[in-house]
């Protein structure tokens, strides 16, 4: 088999890259170890930055997003007895959209621009410094070789691309807490997301649609979801989110999904080795507090698609040569913002730290400068920052 770009990973990063390359006249083949149904059902991010929405629209992928997504002007920040609204549009001139990763995946699959081989095994990049190719076993059990001009690793933190990009520098921060997340078939109890600091731990009220709520609780690492029956989850959410405060009520409902998400930050640099380029979770992980994971992957792909089109269509390597540095500038900005949101809102049992967190929250919620900084980062810096 032969193509211009071999893409490993058929999540949003891989399929969006294939879609943008197709629109730019560059051929790509996508390899994915999971089934199409599994990839489509993965429950991940739900908040899109304004720049992500603009890119999807410019790529012809915005029609259903505009029709079925929900534009939010901001978020609520909460402390016991207080809830403050930060209006991103007023502060930074940009909004965010609630539109789940599963919906973005559906739109990319429906576009039909990517040649995808699902349920492949033993995927391995080779000769990435010179004449790259990928070997794999297809779904019929036949060993295949895919030759390419470039390999794009969009296969997340557990795929083969990250290791193939070594040697590299790795930076990591593992946080001493996790999120217990649920999906519930109940209308959201809030019009916009609530980020709540509480002595018992952080809580977040998010949503996926007008009828589906997504909620999270800070829990210790190693927590077993089985130790948290539904009644216990809803009682703890009510406490941390301020049920009854100023007449606000949290409405419980049937829980359809329950999982525990460990929290960590990870950056691998450079995001390129020879003819192998990394994008998304293959190169970096951020805790979800800042709503940056999917948006960072989209920003990577926006840069990488432009660079590869210039390289393969025009023989111009300048953008490809600067891709890693250009992408990492945004990666580190978003890594810092995600760390800042995480450490500001999650409790660790230290009374001194708790007072610092409350002081910081009061500054953000009462200072226009503080609120603008949060809004600017949360709603998303322009692509190419």
Give the topology.
Layout: E1 5-8, H1 12-23, E2 28-31, H2 36-41, E3 47-48, H3 50-58, H4 63-68, E4 70-72, E5 74-79, E6 82-87, H5 88-92, E7 96-98, H6 101-111, E8 115-117, E9 121-126, E10 133-137, E11 143-147, E12 150-153, H7 161-164, E13 169-184, E14 194-196, E15 203-207, E16 213-219, H8 230-241, E17 255-269, E18 272-273, E19 276-278, E20 284-285, H9 293-314, H10 318-345, H11 351-366, H12 368-379
Parallel strand pairs: 1-2, 1-12, 2-8, 5-14, 12-19
Antiparallel strand pairs: 3-7, 4-7, 5-6, 9-10, 10-11, 13-16, 13-17, 14-15, 15-16, 17-20, 18-19
Name the features.
20 strands, 8-stranded mixed sheet
Strand line-up of the largest beta sheet: 6-5-14-15-16-13-17-20
How would you classify the helix and strand content by structural class? alpha+beta
Give the biggest beta sheet: 8 strands, mixed
- Average pLDDT across residues? 96
Low-pLDDT runs: none
Walk me through what this model shows:
- By secondary structure, the protein is of the alpha+beta class.
- The protein has 12 helices and 20 strands.
- The strands form 4 sheets. An 8-stranded mixed β-sheet has the order 6-5-14-15-16-13-17-20. Strands 8-2-1-12-19-18 form a 6-stranded mixed β-sheet.
- Strand 1, helix 1 (12-23) and strand 2 form a beta-alpha-beta unit.
- The radius of gyration is 21 Å and the shape is globular.
- The mean pLDDT is 96.
């Amino acid at each position: 088999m032969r193509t211009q770009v071999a893409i490993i990973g058929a999540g949003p990063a891989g399929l969006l890259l294939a879609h943008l390359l197709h629109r730019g006249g560059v051929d790509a083949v996508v390899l994915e170890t999971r089934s199409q149904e599994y990839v489509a059902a993965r429950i991940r991010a739900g908040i899109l930055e304004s720049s992500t929405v603009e890119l999807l629209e410019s790529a012809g992928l915005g029609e259903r997003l505009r029709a079925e997504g929900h534009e939010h002007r901001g978020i609520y920040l909460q402390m016991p007895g207080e809830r403050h609204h930060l209006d991103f549009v007023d502060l930074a001139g940009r909004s965010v959209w609630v539109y789940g990763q599963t919906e973005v995946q559906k739109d990319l699959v429906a576009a039909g621009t990517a040649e995808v081989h699902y349920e492949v095994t033993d995927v391995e990049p080779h000769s990435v410094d010179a004449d790259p190719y990928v070997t794999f076993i297809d779904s019929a059990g036949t060993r295949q070789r895919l030759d390419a001009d470039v390999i794009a690793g969009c296969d997340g933190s557990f795929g083969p691309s990250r290791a193939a990009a070594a040697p590299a520098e790795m930076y990591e921060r593992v946080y001493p807490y996790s999120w217990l997340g649920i999906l519930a078939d109940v209308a959201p109890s809030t019009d916009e997301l609530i980020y709540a600091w509480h002595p018992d731990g952080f809580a977040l009220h998010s949503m996926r649609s007008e009828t589906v709520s997504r909620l999270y609780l800070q829990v210790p690492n190693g927590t077993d979801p089985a130790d948290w029956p539904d009644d216990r989850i809803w009682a703890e959410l009510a406490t941390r989110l301020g049920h009854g405060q100023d007449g606000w009520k949290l409405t419980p409902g049937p829980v359809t999904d329950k999982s525990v998400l460990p929290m960590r930050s990870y950056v691998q640099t450079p995001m390129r080795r020879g003819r192998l380029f990394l994008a998304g979770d293959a190169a970096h992980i951020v805790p979800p507090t800042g709503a940056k994971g999917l948006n960072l992957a989209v920003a990577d792909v926006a840069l990488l698609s432009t660079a590869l089109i210039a390289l393969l269509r025009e023989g111009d390597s300048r953008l490809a040569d600067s891709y890693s540095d250009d992408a990492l500038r945004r990666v580190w900005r978003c890594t810092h913002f995600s760390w800042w949101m995480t450490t500001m809102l999650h409790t660790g049992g230290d009374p001194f730290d708790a007072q610092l967190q409350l002081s910081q929250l009061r500054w953000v919620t009462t200072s226009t400068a503080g609120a603008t900084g949060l809004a600017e980062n949360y709603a998303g810096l322009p692509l190419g920052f």
